[in-house]
Write a structure and sequence with these properties.
Structural class: alpha/beta
Largest sheet: 7 strands, antiparallel
Distance between the termini: 36 Å
CATH architecture of one domain: Alpha-Beta Barrel
Number of helices: 15
CATH topology of one domain: nicotinate phosphoribosyltransferase
Helix content: 25-40%
Shape: elongated
Number of strands: 19
Strand content: 15-25%
Strand order of the largest sheet: 15-14-1-5-3-18-19
CATH class of one domain: Alpha Beta
Amino acid sequence: MKNILLNTDSYKSSHYLQYPPKSEYVSSYIEARLPKDAKILFFGLQAFIKEYLLTPFTKEDIEEAKEILSLHGLVFNYDGWKYILKTYDGYLPLEISAVSEGSLIPTGLPLVQVVNTDLKVPWLTSYIETALLRAVWFPTSVATISYNIKQTIKRYLEETSEEVESQLPFKLHDFGARGTSSQESAMIGGMAHLVNFQGTDTLSAIIGAKRYYGCNMAGFSIPASEHSTMTSWTKKGEMDAYENMIKQFGGDGKLFAVVSDSYDIFNAVSSIWGKELKAKVKKSGATLVIRPDSGDPKTIVLEVIKRVYESFGGRTNAKGYIVLDDSVRIIQGDGVDAKVIEEILQALKESGFSAENIAFGMGGALLQQPTRDTFSFAMKASAIRVDGKWRDVFKDPISDSNKRSKKGRLALSESFECLRVEELGNKKNLLEPVYKNGKLLKEYTFDEIRRIADEN
């Protein structure tokens, strides 16, 4: 739905009548309020601006919104929207400032600030809240979850492996497309994950990174089986199904993944892969990635890796941990979240296995389970200019101090001080203008965002 007038909550249609007389400008900000002492990886605003704010609305959009909202039981600011159409050719007279995409920012600080640029439309700042907040909280939440998992995996690689930088980008693979609420959600969340990693099966994320951030190819995948392809050979033909995977996808330096729990994961690992097809796996020159897909992840993965080591062997690296033979690796893609990943890596470490033996596939917990409350995102008005004078706007509910909002027109210094704009002095403001009156003022490439995230 591209009509920006309808990309809001119904009740906001009545808000133009609720501001004080002679109101001119409203300044609002977006922050992640919780958990305290955490950090947020900011991402996704540019995609929203390009998709929704660089295309003007039309007279037909106004008429559609008027009809729908009137039938819906609300008043509609027909004259206000007509004024914007006539004066700004349908582009929104707003200025949006934000921290750099890819930045790691402590919670409780402003990430975005927005203010109307025409004193005749002070109501517009909050009208855009629904769309703008949604554009920020979801990709930022996914990027933050993915970033935190990356730090966990990196720590275990540093402790148990001699190879970190070359392996880390492919240790968490996005399996989440089918579990999202829409293709757009998959695209936005999938892009956010790709800020940190390069493994994905979410094709819409690849398209989004190309369309909105100029990245020709942001992520990669490998040939992989699913239960339908394996079980179509029937239980008696399980070995034939696996052998066909070697035939189709083997080759020097190649990788392919095979789900192996359709019947008996332990028999598949120890007998079929580990005995009957072992020579063919090694001769193929490829790396077979075995995927268990059921049971308790921590216990199943450890048992599978032990059985693979027993059959295929391996080596002990310089840090004293076992690395499986190069012909075999494991990927766990069932029941995976941040907690499970750390539990599995810890279990492997305690049993003497390196973290380089395993990769993870993450679905719903990556792209669907995050909500606005995961990091307590909110957009709040903090200042209003009435009859030429700015005044503070804030809330401070006695029943919940965590919902106390900020006052004034805000700035964020490089040392992460939240200041009033008038207190900034010579300090650099991290909240830089990125959009104004239909123009994209600052454009990031995906490579730039990844670099910023890495420098964190």
